[in-house]
Each structure stands twice: as C-alpha cells, then as structure tokens.
Amino acid sequence: MNKLAKVCLLPLMALMILLPQDAQAQGVSVIIDDVAQDYSQPPVIKDGSTLVPLRGIFETLGADVNWNQLEQKVTATQDQTTIELVIGSGTATINNQEHQLSVPGQIVNNSTMVPLRFVSEALGAEVSWDQSTKTVNITSSSNDGSSVVTNDDMEIHFLDVGQGDSTLVILPNDKTLLIDAGSRSAGEKIVSYLKKAGITTIDYAVATHPHEDHIGGFIDVFNEFEVKNVLDSGYVHTTLTFENYLDFIYDNDIGFEVAERGATIDLDPGIDITVLTDGADENSIGHAHDFSVSLYIEYNDFSAIFTGDAETELESDMVNHYGDQLNAQIYQVGHHGSNTSSTQLFLDHVQPEIAYFSFGEGNAYGHPHDEVVQRMAAMNIEMYYATQGDLIVTTNGKNYSTNQEPQSIEIDDAKKDADESEEHTGLININTADKELLQEITGVGPAIAKRIIEYRENNGPFERIEQIMNVSGIAEGRFADMKDEITV
Ligand SMILES: [Zn+2]
Questions:
Q1: Residue range(s) defining the domain that contains residue 210
Q2: pLDDT at 150
Q3: Ligand 1 centroid from CA 113, angstroms
Q4: From ligand 1's centre to the CA of 181, what distance in Å?
Q5: How far is the CA of 368 from the centre of ligand 1 (A)?
Q6: How many domains does the structure of the chain reveal?
Q7: Class of residue 72 by CB neighbours under 10 A (exposed 0-12, middle 13-18, buried 19+)
Q8: 327-360 pLDDT, tens digit each
C-alpha cells in the first residue's frame, strides 16, 4: 500500500468503528432445504441473532414480499401467513399478532436485513445452528418429509435460571441427568421446563456443591419427579436449604453418593460420564467451591465439561490429573464467569468451541467478569449467555447444533478495543481484523483474507507477523509489500 492509501485508511477505519461492529460479515452460511444460499450482502450476527437480506430469505421460503420505502416496512405473504416488520422496530406481527424480535430488522450496506430465525419460523420452517461450520440450517415446511427424527441424539439443556446453574442432560436412551437446580426461586421454572420436556424421572441429580444457587431448586424437583440417585460433593454446609435437601434424600430413600475422581455414571451404554473431582470428607480443608463436582460427558466424537463453581485450584488439579483429556467442545463456564475460574491454563486444556455462561442479569458479583470474556474472545470461543434464554445443544455423537446463535456483544467489545488501538498505530492487526479490513492490506483480496481468518481459527492467533507467510498465497514477495501495514 502506498503512502496516500495509508493516509486514507484512517478516516475509513474511524468510520468502521462508528458502524456497529457486529454488523460486519462474520462468515455465517445459510442452507435452506440443503441448498447453500448466496447473498449479495453476507449474513451478519447481531446480539446473537443472524440477519439476512430480506428478499433472499422470504422469496426462498416462497413468500411474496412488498417493501414500503416511506414507512420502512416489509410485508411478506405466504398462503395464510402475513408478516409485517418495520426496520428498527423491536416487534413484528404475524397475522396481526404482535411478536417480540430478538433483534430488529436493519439496513446494512444498503441491504435490508431481517432476523432469519424469526422469519423462517413465522413461515413454518425449522431452524438450527451448527456451531462447527457456523451454518444456519433451515428446513422449510414444504420440505417436511426429508427431516428424519432420530433416536440417538443426546441433548444438553442449559437452563436460564438467573444467577445459578441448572443443566438437564437427556441421553439417547432417554435417561436423564440434572446437574444442579438453581436457586429456590428457580425451582418452579425447572419443574415446568422438565414437565414440558416430558420428563417424569431424574436418573441422576448432581449437586455440584451446596450453595443455594445450585441446590435451592432441588426441593421443588424432588417433590415433582422421581429422583433415583443424587451425586453430591460431600461438603457439609450449615444452611436450612442444605438441611432440607439432605432430609428429603434421607426420608425418601434416594440413592446418595459422594463424588470420587474417576467414577462413572452408567446410564446409557453409548455415553461415558466421568467424575473429574473428589468430594470432601471430614478431614478435608477448603471451602465449598474446592469440592465442586465436575463432570465430563463423552458421546463418540462429542464431549462436554461441567465444573460447577470450581476455582483456580480445582481447575489446576483437574489439569494435573487429566491434561489434554479435558478437551471438550462444550464448556459450562465455571463459577458463572467469575475471574476465580476459567484460568488460561484450564482453557488451554479444555480448548472449548462453545462456552455457556450462567448468570443473572445485573447480578451483584459482576458476573461474567471481563477478563474471562476477553480470554475466551482471544481464543475465538463462541459465548452463550443465560440472559439470552435457555441454550439447547443437540448431538448425535459426531456433529452438534444449538438452538441459538452465539452472543456477540462482548466479542465485539474485545474487537472494538483492538480496532481502536489500530486507529492509533494505523496498522492492521492480523489477529483481529475482519475480512473487509484484511483486504485493506496490500496484496490481500477476498480469497487470501478468508484464508488468513481460517488459518487463525485453526492455529490460534499469529504470534509474529512473519507467520502470515504460513497462509497459502502469501510468499516472501507479498509479505515484503505488507509488512509495514500489519501488526499482531
Ligand atoms: Zn454458583
């Protein structure tokens, strides 16, 4: 890039910072009835929802579209369904019935973008998100015959219980595991959620540790469902909630076990559930979190790790015992995203693709803590927040999909910080620049930009700018042209 172009880059980058960060392309693909969609304006993720160009989505799903420029209003009609959506409005109507939108329709680069999931579901299509390929899969209602219901799926339901944890695991053979039950006030929600899911029996209830935000809801659950076994941390806590919980187990002859490292929970022959931590006994020293029951669930190629409120010390202990065997695609973030947990050491061994943060909006602890979020953003871990609602991960032991798109706000904040620092140096950070910005580098077109992004996704961030020569298409000549424009 010559001197003139570099000078011009500064106002351009300032402009990009003014634009909503997440309104930029993030490499999301959309497949409708097995056909990959090619949009003039690439799909974007905004506040955890994918937006796509208006015409593309409505017309592919067989709806007629009418755009009223003056009112900025979209009207789409398909058979008996009429959808009305005004750009910038948080609600839309389906047959005159008002619905809340997760994200309003908006104009991006002159394209009118609408929330994909809302539009698809309004038109009777099924929507799922495949994290590994960052793909939204849509099956239109006219294509029902092709969707095959399989029995060998495992589902993990991360419930939004405000400040607290509760995770339901439904195994392929329909046996159930409930890890924690939130606080007392969450009991009712958990009970109704389980009932709606058609559950009558909990085969294993796991109380990671006796704090109220993890065991408070168990009394409601015990009262409504047959609970066969309880796995406990062995840590004795002198609270009424804990006493009630123990009394119920004792009075109702529920099986009671204390965690033992290496023990397994054998519920489904296809699924390995391993206990990673030892429980407390009368000689144990430490506080409740030091004995937080941690579990590793493995289904062929798929794995997930749950650590309750485990903190630094217990995390290192797991690393010492298991090392890279802790590697898992899904990580339930320890201690609600507190900086007592999710240490770099632990994350380096787990290397999750998805992290789920369970915390309540505006909680007094400031969860999730910034440093944890930044740490994960730097590792390109997709983050999901309980404040977005329940997260369901479904897996067949090979692939997995989620019912939501990841939260993007915090990742974007991290990016914004990086972009702002670029504004000062005038250099482009090859670890954080998106596809557009990368193309500002001399010699980088769309194809090489894509390869740079793929490279850092597969290999982690570049440590030195010279490593960009590992990306195919960038040899010494090209590197010489760009080396004064880039940084890490
Ligand atoms: Zn907790």
A1: 154-407
A2: 47
A3: 39
A4: 11
A5: 12
A6: 3
A7: middle
A8: 999 999 999 999 999 999 999 999 999 999 999 9
Written as one letter, the residue type at 211 is H
**Phi-psi label, residue 246: left if phi above 0, alpha if psi -120 to 50, beta otherwise:** alpha
Specify which residues 74 forms β-bridges with.
67, 85
Q: How far apart are CA 246 and CA 453, in angstroms?
A: 52
Q: Tell me the CA–centroid distance for residue 23 and ligand 1, in Å.
A: 34
Ligand 1: centre distance to CA 323 (Å): 25
Judge whether 414 lies within some domain. no
Ligand 1 centroid, distance to 233 Cα (angstroms): 14
The rounded Å distance from CA 388 to ligand 1 centre is 19
**Residue 408 banded pLDDT, cuts 50, 70, 90:** low
Q: Outline where DSSP puts E strands in 184-248.
A: 201-207, 226-232
Largest CA distance in the chain: 80
- The domain boundary, picked from 145, 178, 200, lies at 145
* 128/236 same-domain check: no
| Ligand 1 center from residue 401 Cα (angstroms) | 26
Confidence tier at 14 by pLDDT (50, 70, 90): very low
Q: Using the mean position of ligand 1's atoms as its centre, give its distance from the Cα of residue 295 in Å.
A: 16
Whether residue 252 is contained in a domain is answered as: yes
User: What spacing in Å lies between the alpha carbon of 285 and ligand 1's midpoint?
Assistant: 20
289-298, 353-362, 475-484: which has the minimum mean pLDDT?
Answer: 475-484
- CATH code: domain of residue 441: 1.10.150.320
pLDDT tens-digit series, residues 95-152:
887 877 888 888 887 778 888 887 887 887 878 888 778 888 888 765 443 333 446 8
Q: What is the 164 CA–ligand 1 centroid distance (Å)?
A: 5
214 alpha carbon to ligand 1 midpoint, in Å?
6
**Distance of CA 215 from the midpoint of ligand 1 (Å):** 9
Give, in order, the Cα–Cα distances in Å from 290 to each of 145, 208, 311, 466, 471: 51, 10, 7, 43, 44
Encode pLDDT of 63-75 as tens digits.
877 777 778 888 8
